[in-house]
Design goal:
three-stranded mixed β-sheet; 5 helices; about 190 residues; Rossmann fold; alpha/beta; globular
């Protein structure tokens, strides 16, 4: 059976995620309205501006449906801002759209745009070859609940990727690289559901 992945297309790097998924031969759809969540087998919440995406999710009445789908087992991957939108606690104490993952996240944890960086990371879940990660105004995970599997830490111990069952969060931007292994990892979660 062919799987269909929705990509939240309100703001941010949604087109880049769609491009990678299409290269992998995956059917995709842009999600802007609640009924566009119907019939998808997984959802990607891209990087972008978390405050803007939060406001747009509220305006288009998407937050409650995404939360409900995630609680019922729909696989969801959040990258950068998507990580913030999936966390159940953020340092700014603002209202969180979904709260699906038991993590506390610090926004802009590495500084402003000029402090963006790239680094090769060891990610055992996707193989032995290092993964070249791109961090742009990235968040970080300050703490994770006991059910959360930490997938990646920076050399200083900072948590930058985690998984809790069907929910995958990454502080960096896999859609901005040519390496599709993290998208394949997410598709594996989708296919096992």
């Amino acid at each position: 059976m062919t799987k269909k992945i929705g990509v939240l297309a309100l703001q941010g790097a949604f087109a880049e995620h769609i491009s990678i998924l299409k290269k992998l031969g995956v059917e995709t759809s842009e999600v802007r309205l609640p009924d566009e969540l119907d019939g998808i087998d997984g959802l990607i919440i891209p990087g972008g501006e978390s405050t803007t995406i939060t406001k747009l999710m509220a305006s288009y009445e998407l937050a409650d449906k995404i939360k409900s789908l995630g609680q019922s087992g729909l696989p969801i991957m959040g990258t950068c801002a998507g990580m913030i939108l999936l966390a159940n606690k953020v340092d700014t104490n603002g209202k969180l759209p979904t709260g699906l993952m038991d993590i506390e996240v610090k926004r802009n944890a590495f500084g402003r745009q000029v402090d963006s960086f790239e680094i090769d990371l060891d990610i055992p879940a996707i193989g032995k070859k290092p993964y070249h990660a791109i961090f742009i105004r990235a968040p970080r995970i300050e703490s994770a609940g006991s059910n959360v599997e930490v997938l990646v830490k920076l050399p200083d111990g900072t948590i930058v990727a985690a998984r809790d069952g069907n929910i995958l969060t990454l502080a960096f931007h896999p859609e901005l690289t040519r390496d599709s292994r993290l998208h394949k990892y997410f598709l594996d979660i989708v296919n096992r559901r």
